Amino acid sequence: MDVGEGRRIKCEFDPWIPGCNSFHSIIYKGPADDVVSSLITDERQWNMDLRNQFFSHLDVERIMTLPLSFFPSEDSQIRHYNEFGLPTFDELKLNFDAVVHSSRNKIGVGALVRNARGKVLAAMSKPSAGNFKSHEMEATTMFHSLNWVMQLELPISTMEIDAQMVSNTLTK
Known about the structure:
Pfam families: RVT_3
Protein name: RNase H type-1 domain-containing protein
Strand content: 15-25%
Organism: Cannabis sativa
InterPro entries: RNaseH_domain
Number of strands: 4
Radius of gyration: 17 Å
GO molecular function: nucleic acid binding; RNA-DNA hybrid ribonuclease activity
């Protein structure tokens, strides 16, 4: 989920926290029916007390990578990378993603290239300095990934990204 107002996203049950395969919290100790909007103040900031009370330290770090717009918007669904499809017959597809370790001011960049049978032909991961908003991390990851496949001279026909803001900007 992409957090807008947070009124439709259940803290415990919905996939909304970046940085792990399931997009769920590692530990959640809050009310079962609580929604993400309860963690956001009227000033559109994360409520530090509730966030620290309900989630593990690692979850808090991952939540802090989620940008909150000054202007609330609708929550929206973002496809998880497991939902990404395969390229067609003789094409290659590039998938990439980013993760942040905010207390160390580092991001991790990862990419892989697959063929139509789903076989991984090349993979790359590397650390990078920074502690950016999630869309900035994804854009940085896209830059590193495209640079990498160009150096390998791989004929990529399709790219998939799980960052809606970056994807929308590119497809305008």
